[in-house]
Amino acid sequence: MAVDPLIELRDVNKFYGQLHVLRDINLTVGRGEVVVIIGPSGSGKSTLCRTINRLETIESGRISIDGRPLPEEGKGLAQLRAEVGMVFQSFNLFAHRTVLANVSLAQLKVRKRKKDEADRRSRELLERVGLASQADKLPAQLSGGQQQRVAIARALAMDPKALLFDEPTSALDPEMINEVLEVMQQLARDGMTMVVVTHEMGFARSAANRVVFMADGRIVEDRTPDAFFTAPESDRAKDFLSKILKH
Amino acid sequence: MDVLTENFSLYGKGFLGTVELTVYSSILALVLGFLMASCRVAPVGSLRVLGTVWVTVLRNTPLTLLFFAVLLGLPRFGLVLPFKVFAVLALGCYTSAFICEVLRSGINTVPTGQGEAARSLGMTFGQTLNTVVLPQAFRSVIPPVGSTLIALAKNSAIAGAFSVTELLGTYKTLNELGYSIIWTFVWIAVGYLIITLSISALFNVMEKRWGVAR
């Protein structure tokens, strides 16, 4: 289905001690594609997302980004991570820096941009996520939804080839979820390659090209959102959907 | 009172000796402690081993024994330096083990997500540590680093036993001159208090200055 593969996982296995958390994962994400990963908690979806930029190591299998295999710890890995942005459930904004500095920091340190150039780019991105007026505040002074939008701007500042979202709205109050989802919808429309772990079925339906359903460390289904939500094939997915779509 | 006024220059020399030992050893301890703490949290296994061995050996050796090892041991391997330098080496290395552990516990107070976010942006281990983790760890380690340096100031007295000029050692001369042992020690104690209270004051100021709200 993917014509131009950007992220490729082949026969990936991971253990936490005895616990087999990822079992023979095969997944290809094409350039410009939005893949949403859903599944019950403990199914390994967050772990899968974190292996893509090697925040979690794997025991066997291959992961490659844009045709290059994921390097070992060191300079090469750092370079690759700069190409793959990540947005976390708990935002993880640098608590001791202002919003503007949060977005600029990696541009200065990793992309070696000049300070004024980095700050200009940061303000542009903050504008894009609707937070230009908050640039000089500390993260703790913002709401959760605002913090998460800053985190997205921070990831975008590196001009990444792909973005990974690890349950970006799970720590948010219901009324703040939409402001984050809107930003993500916009990114999807702009053609950003995205891997999104989420419980937001509405987002999966409207923005995803494919839905990957995981259970017990395996990929159980990998289909278009329409096909998945209207006619899930596996019993596991039917059971999951019946539970979450009931109320 | 006479003890102090009549022997002011002797006290002064001892006092300055202790100050010098404290300052130089503190600098050495902070630098080495910082390096070792970096090693202990590094992603490279051999560096972690180095840091662990350093801390285990130095923290569990009695300081007097370490002084013997440095002052009597190193010259046997052809390394001959003034006793004062040896004393700074022994004190600095010994204290660095404690500083290392204090810094490491400070690093552990910073949520792991902070480091993960920095690494996910492509920052190297060193950049992550220096620009994201340590500045946040810094605040919580100011009080225990102060305590460790105060302990260092008092530990410097051991150097006196190895004929390095320092404050406690002045009692020998004064005792021979027939002064009251009690008043001799009272003024020595005052000298130590001046040093240790200065360190406390300095660290109090630092805590107020850099105590950033999270």
What's the number of extended β-strand segments of chain B? 0
State the end-to-end distance of chain B: 50 Å
Summarize the largest interface: chains and residue counts.
Answer: A-B, 30 and 22 residues
CATH class of chain A: Alpha Beta
Largest sheet geometry of chain B: none
What does this structure look like?
- The complex is a heterodimer of chains A (247) and B (214).
- Chain A is of the alpha/beta class and 247 residues long.
- Chain A has helices at residues 45-51, 75-83, 99-109, 115-128, 144-156, 174-189, 201-207, 225-230, 235-244, and strands at residues 5-16, 19-30, 34-38, 60-65, 68-69, 84-87, 162-166, 193-197, 210-215, 218-223.
- In chain A, helix 3 (99-109) packs parallel to helix 5 (144-156), helix 4 (115-128) packs across helix 5 and helix 5 packs parallel to helix 6 (174-189).
- Chain A starts with a strand and ends with a helix.
- The model of chain A has no long low-confidence stretch (mean pLDDT 92).
- Chain B has a single domain (2-210), classed as MetI-like (MetI-like fold, Orthogonal Bundle), CATH 1.10.3720.
- In chain B, helix 2 (8-40) packs antiparallel against helix 3 (45-59), helix 6 crosses helix 7 (125-155) and helix 8 runs antiparallel to helix 9.
- The interface between A and B is medium-sized, with 30 and 22 residues.
